[in-house]
Amino acid sequence: MKKRIGVLLSGRGSNFEALAESAAAGRIPNAEIAIVVSNRENAPGIERARARETEALVIPSKGLEREAYDRLVAAALEEKKVDLVCLAGYMRLLSPYFVAAFRNRILNIHPSLLPAFPGLEAQRQALEHGAKFSGCTVHFVDENLDAGPIVLQAVVPIKDDDTPETLSERILREEHRIYTEAVRIVLEGRYRIENRRVMILPEKVSEKR
Ligand code: GAR
Fold this sequence. Notes:
Layout: E1 3-9, H1 14-25, E2 31-38, H2 44-51, E3 56-58, H3 66-79, E4 84-87, H4 96-101, E5 106-110, H5 122-129, E6 133-140, E7 150-157, H6 164-187, E8 191-194, E9 197-200
Parallel strand pairs: 1-2, 1-4, 2-3, 4-5
Antiparallel strand pairs: 5-6, 6-7, 8-9
Helix pairs in contact: 1-6
């Protein structure tokens, strides 16, 4: 049976699309996006999902407490029997309930080299700090913001004439690449966690591309 991925997003959806393309092209073997959930009605990612004939659900969060909301989202994902939850520009902190329901089965992509520049506008934070390099991080999600064990990172140089937009674009290309790679590793179970360290195990010869 194919491994089933649930994607949570709030906006554009380019990371969703990269994962969907990778699954369709076999770069993430034997996997499919089973459902996309957005907390925002007008998220372009929802249209992108529907254009790919992927089931896409809007669950508005207005008026709901964090855990009550997360219970709705978790129920939608459980109904679709997802094996892995991928946050892809999902601009909400997850409740302890949600994290426990999918322990070690939630990944996030963040546009900085964590633990530097967590939170919003990470690319602008890196520029304003004067960093010479930034990048992106795929990590397991725990109860804290942008804080769980790191699976993969990619480094991107910061140029003197960068703006938040040009830097974001350069980082985004790496995001799409390492998110695919990280999802592949996690779905294949090709890792071991020791304390905070995620050790990536070698590919079996038969799995080599
Ligand atoms: C991406 O750059 C992602 O790393 C970032 O939001 C953007 C979503 O783009 N996520 C965060 O900042 C999470 N803290 P996308 O909707 O095109 O995938």
